[in-house]
Design brief:
InterPro entries: Glyco_trans_8, GNT1/Glycosyltrans_8, Nucleotide-diphossugar_trans
Oligomer: single chain
Keywords: Cytoplasm, Glycogen biosynthesis, Glycoprotein, Manganese, Metal-binding, Nucleus, Phosphoprotein, Transferase
CATH architecture of the largest domain: Alpha-Beta Complex
Structural class: alpha/beta
GO molecular function: glycogenin glucosyltransferase activity; metal ion binding
Main location: cytoplasm
GO biological process, one term: glycogen biosynthetic process
CATH class of the largest domain: Alpha Beta
Number of helices: 13
CATH superfamily of the largest domain: Spore Coat Polysaccharide Biosynthesis Protein SpsA, Chain A
Bound molecules: uridine-5'-diphosphate, alpha-D-glucopyranose, manganese (II) ion
Length: 327
């Protein structure tokens, strides 16, 4: 039962880069703060830096290096406007953790708000409905049983059928295709994977039930680490429209990150440069940045083919301009 201490059961997450690694650190801390009795496993890709791995090793019982699998399915991913999600195929590696009998996978962009060890009472494949298409499950939180046989079948499924969304969620819903109708005990309540978009898709329900949420999922392109944070004022800055859609959860994420994770990262990075995303450091480095260009200077640079593609003329900024213009 969930209350017993089962060392052959684990929470598992994945990070293929240092940003998602920050998410994994906060997730691991949140699981520990809520006193999970289960093991913690982080799967990491080869691009996660040594200092990040060192911090992950302090929080997680096991940090395992995995190959990055990529769907390479740009057409489907473009349809979801998320060209970055092909690497989520890497998630399928979690089935190879056969030294555990049962696991709960959690995306690195999830945050645990209370103890959720009772999830281990559930069977494979248990998951919560996806808010966009509730007959599909969301693959940000799911209960599974590691098995090399299942892993092999999943890879075979990928080769034969691909993924209808280009990412792991499409594969997993194709593979566990009777999830929506077969067994209601495999439907996790939404409070175990409350995506923050529910706040604006169904605000009254959020007001009524939001306080019961046990796991919040920062689903979508803008992640907690995409913002900056002012620890003195306890305020998050960035795209205010999105930030305002999940304000208190975002603040909780940042409070945990800045108080518990940043000091560990600073120690691990030592003399090497490290940007935490907290604002004091941004004001410290602001004087090192070149002074802002006038729009005339910028236009000239454009015309000379010297656009600042990494900065003000980045694809994101151009897209924002276009969106604003089209509205
Ligand atoms: N992920 C990763 N590197 C990436 C993209 C995704 O490690 O470049 C992992 C990470 O665990 C992440 C999960 O795959 O939480 C699913 O991606 P994401 O959370 O961005 O998808 P969303 O929930 O927004 O659809
Ligand atoms: C989803 C899930 C995420 C998954 C992605 C790609 O939106 O939240 O966990 O990796 O789709 O399929
Ligand atoms: Mn996610």
């Amino acid at each position: 039962m969930s209350s017993s201490c089962s060392s052959d059961q684990a929470f598992v997450t994945l990070a293929t880069n240092d940003n998602y690694a920050k998410g994994a650190m906060v997730l691991g801390k949140s699981l520990k703060n809520h006193k999970t009795s289960r093991k913690l496993v982080a799967l990491v890709g080869p691009h996660v830096s040594d200092p990040s791995r060192e911090v992950l090793r302090q929080i997680y019982d096991e940090v395992r290096l995995v190959d990055v699998l990529d769907s390479g399915d740009t057409a489907h991913l473009a349809m979801m406007k998320r060209p970055d999600l092909g690497v989520t195929f890497t998630k399928l590696h979690c089935w190879t953790l056969t030294h555990y009998s049962k696991c709960v996978f959690m995306d690195a962009d999830t945050l645990v708000l209370s103890n959720i060890d009772e999830l281990f009472d559930r069977e494979e494949l248990s998951a919560a409905p996806d808010p966009g298409w509730p007959d599909c499950f969301n693959s940000g939180v799911f209960v599974f049983r590691p098995s090399n046989e299942t892993y092999g079948k999943l890879l075979q499924y990928c080769t034969e059928h691909g993924s209808f969304d280009g990412g792991d969620q499409g594969v997993l819903n194709g593979f566990f295709s009777n999830w929506s109708t077969a067994d209601i005990t495999k439907h996790l309540p939404f409070i175990y994977n409350m995506s923050s978009i529910a706040i604006y898709t169904y605000l009254p329900a959020f007001k009524q039930y939001g306080a019961n949420a046990k796991v919040v999922h920062f689903l979508g392109q803008t992640k907690p680490w995409s913002y900056t944070y002012d620890p003195k004022e306890r305020r998050v800055r960035g795209d205010t429209h999105e930030a305002s859609s999940h304000p208190s959860f975002l603040l909780q994420w940042w409070a945990l990150y800045s108080s518990s994770v940043v000091p560990m990262l600073q120690a691990a990075y030592g003399d090497q440069p490290f940007l935490s995303g907290c604002e004091e450091e941004l004001s410290q480095i602001a004087h090192l940045a070149p002074p802002p260009m006038s729009s005339e200077e910028r236009k000239q640079k454009w015309e000379q083919g010297q656009a600042d593609y990494m900065g003000i003329d980045s694809f994101d900024n151009i897209q924002k301009k276009l969106d604003a213009f089209l509205k």
